[in-house]
Protein 1
Amino acid sequence: MSVPFFSAEPEACPLPEIVPIFPLPSVVFFPETYLPLHIFEPRYREMVQEASAHEQCIGMALLKEGWEDQYEAAPPIHDIGCVGRIISSHKLADGCYNIVLQGIQRCTYQEQTVITNYRQARIAPYTHQVRKALTSDIRRHLEKTAQEYLKAKKATQLCKVIGSGTLTDSILVHNLSAGLDLSPIEKQFLLESDDLSQQARRLIDLIRFKLAALRTAQG
């Protein structure tokens, strides 16, 4: 289990109106998180090369169920995703790339007709994100529930980080959402929350289900 907590606020740089889209079947990206990616398909190598030469932004999107038969074309994606900025890029000898994205903003995607080999979308900020802070009760409940689960998974160091009180509400919620061993559709459910408080409450419920499953498995 990996929860690579964000160490600083994303840079306050304006996002472009249109970004390249990188759809994957099992990755949900969140603001204020880091995402390492190995880019090997030719169309996505082109995407990284073009993005690196311009605004350095890439929109991550989760593929909808049934994507397998259409993968080489344009299978449907969830229209709420997260745009990240390339903060590290290394081109390998075989032409592939290793990159790291920094999660910047949750957005809705409107796909565009393009001549590029990769998909692109016009983006709009996900406007439901009104409440930026958690109440003390929700924060305390989330910390307690997450620590209980992480202790059961023997992730004691992460428990200490969560209990340190040094993380902002949004960094705590987004990194737990990204890093805990939840399914892609559960993470998409979290990403589509109306605000940070709803995301935290949904996260608490999902962790409770996992705790119950652990207890059942342990007898």
Protein 2
Amino acid sequence: FIYDSHCPWSYATTPLVNALQAAYPKMNVNLLHSAHYIGTDSAGEEQMAAAAKISGLKFGRDHIRYVNSPKNSIKTANLMAWIQAKQPEKQLITLNAIQRAHFIEGNPLDNKHDFNAIVEQCKLSPSNKIFKDELSMEAEYVLENIIEIQQVIGTTGFPVLVMTVDDNAIFIDHSLYLSNPQAVVGAVEKEIAAIK
């Protein structure tokens, strides 16, 4: 799942990842944070409203109030890259907690203090270097992986869902399932059946 923690479309796509993980509990989930938001722009009110309308997800009052303010997801990208390397089984639960904090509670996730509740809730122990203002080596490595995947699938857009089964890759058009995340499971089952 190629995403950005501060992107409303990624937030709207995460329920699909949750549905797939529930349907395939032994599936390895790889969350690749694109670190798109670097403090110079935001998705803005228009994208948020469109994502809310299609997905039915709620956005909190504090998020809505600052929706057009510049966003910075670098610290989140660093944390998620650290989790991928050190505690991969906690990636999805942490992403859900991060998105809840940001999109529902209005937490900007700009400094170490903003992550305290998430770190405690998810039982994480990241080092302080994770919360610096530049991308960590681990996050840079994730970006290199994203570039390789984007070359294969022919798009630099995100969010993107790709599932691999044996040596086959299934590109999942998330836009078809935003209003009904459970429907993605049936679509993937058909794709897997066609492969085998």
Protein 3
Amino acid sequence: MTNKVKNIFSLDGRKAFISGAYGHLGESMSEALAEAGAHVYLNGRNLKKLKKICKKFKDVGLSAEIACFDITDETELKKFFSSINKLDIVVNNAYSGGLGDIDHSSSEDFRNSYEVSVVAANNIFKHSLKYLKKSNCASVINIASMYGMVSPDHKIYPDKKTTNSPFYGASKAALIQWTKYAACQYGKEGIRVNSISPGPFPNMISSNQLSKALKNKSPLSKLGTPEELKGPILFLASDASSYVNGANLVVDGGWTSS
């Protein structure tokens, strides 16, 4: 690989903020940004987990910093974004919500899911705008889902209480639409806004029965691993995607094509 090709994927000198930094997919994406040279603000509400991942990064020479606060609290958002002086990359990865089909979903589930996925992403964007407008490489990446595009196949879930929830897909679909809206409004200011729709990426607590069903349904006959999001997140964060704006990059092994 030539230096020219390597350079377009480099994030040297850039600063990135990622919400949900220690989650199932968050840690791997955070690591990819740091490995590419970015200084990464690791956001979440659990200070213990943030300290653990931050130490892990620093122990191998990566640049990271803890940003422990609730992204649904605008006062905390304002406080954080007033404390920094530069930002080039924003990754909205945080999500909050449980499982269960429509029969097992409450109004509060829908509100909470939307607040964390969409409202918080919008507010983070607004508070980071003053920095993104000054950056010559501004990139905002929203982590959506294949279930923001298609419905879960209810037949592969063990029971109604463990089915992927309707509020999850609804909030992720809204995030994809918000991505397109922001991309069209702010593209002229040099701010690119894109989304990634992963899946299936079951976490460690998923049952063997569900994991097997997901694997069998995948056209690649395999499940996604967190490390397989490193390439997509780096692509959208770097100059390699300098003309990509308003796109939804699907990383699902062909799930939504079948």
Protein 4
Amino acid sequence: CGLRRKEGAMLNVEDVNLERDEIFVSKSKTHTQRRVPMNEGVLKYIEDYLFNAREMLLSSDSSEGALLISNRGKRMSVGSVDYALKQLIEQTQNEQIKQSCTGLHTLRHSIATHLLQAGMKLEDIARFLGHKSIDSTQIYTHLTESANN
């Protein structure tokens, strides 16, 4: 969904609106709130996680409201989210992904670049990413231009 690491780690279950296909980011780096849309694929994975995997991670006496739960039944830290992505990369059969320097911020750049290439306006991408200034979003224009050359 293009969230920053800390934004993802700070999400609560109540921030996920499955009926509206969106995530509410209430705690962002820029101290602004925003609603981030989820596509069908993301929605499917979030639903599966919420109704299956997450329940298995919670202990019977837990009242944890965090969306992302560690194997200890508590909110995942930013470092734990990074580690989980590294574990997923190690498990893939795709050697190109294994050899790449993929991290959470790389995924944030990727979604922004894909949105730009699909024709989304830079102003809308800035809102999607939670940038206060469009100048912060301008870097994706340079990435797209260099990829096209």
